[in-house]
Fold Esterase.
Amino acid sequence: MPWFWPVDAALRLTERNLDFLTEAVKITRPPPPDWATPNTVRLDLATMRLREFGRAKAGGVPVLVDAPYAGHGATIADYDKGQSLVETLLANGLDHVLVTDWKPATQEMRYFSIDTYLAELNAAIDDLGGVVHLVGLCQGGWLSAMLASRFPHKVKSLVLAGAPIDADAGDGPIKQMAKTMPLKSYRAMVRTGRGLMPGRFMLAGWKNMHPSEHYVDKFVRLYQNIADKNYLDRTETFAAWYENPLDLPGVYYLQAIEQIFKENRFAKGEFVGLGRRLSLKDVTCPVYLLAGAEDDITTREQVFAAEDLVGTPKKKIEQKLVPGGHIGLFMGRKTLGETWPGIARWIGRQS
């Protein structure tokens, strides 16, 4: 999911009108979403709750799904019955699955940095025995790749799904926005959020990427299907997830915008994580790359560029392009039904 303000007018925003923006994008939120699959909280850390699904087997290597931390909740990995990545993995031979349930930022978290999240992801892996199969979704993908670069011996295999590994690759709208919108505009929004990047700002930005879909088409479809209970239930489920954006720590957010998306330091081997310069060449485990053909959030080029950046031998790298857009990679029935079972079996073979 993008973190950028994808309308030309936003490029001309100044600090003096951000207060108005704060009021303009306030919405009445539905209740937050539930997890579709029974789980327990294995760890409760400052940044996340580590949710545990299934049951560990002696000698088994757990699968850790690193959910996106980009403004929406981690239930994207366990969205609904029949639309759950967790459910799919468990049904295809993986007995022990965990998900990083990243917490919405509070004022006490405003100085959390990328290092904070790397450190706690590392702590979660240590609690699981020190070795995992790591599945990074979207922004969770570059964090997972950083972890695999910093601690390569802790990652048995790495799946990167819709993950922007090379922010300079391709020519998508998010790349253009990252390069065009001045950093001072992002800093101004964080100042307005008193040290946080407000989720409501990002939500309005996402909607303005496809305004007709969110402001016209949605209401037309609702009117046309007003008597269809299944449609209404699906709409309510999606709204619970989509209309409940998370605030992000300002330091983390600005660091990602500047160093990852504007300067592309990670892909260039210039990003410093937990005291060391990170190189993707240090990632030598088997890697699976998944991209959406119509994904305008993370283009296929940004995902597949990892093939030439990691140190994994080419014969141990798999890549697949599937129909559909960004969110469909993680919750779409077609991709979950046709592609992720194969990825689960691929993970199983790496054990």
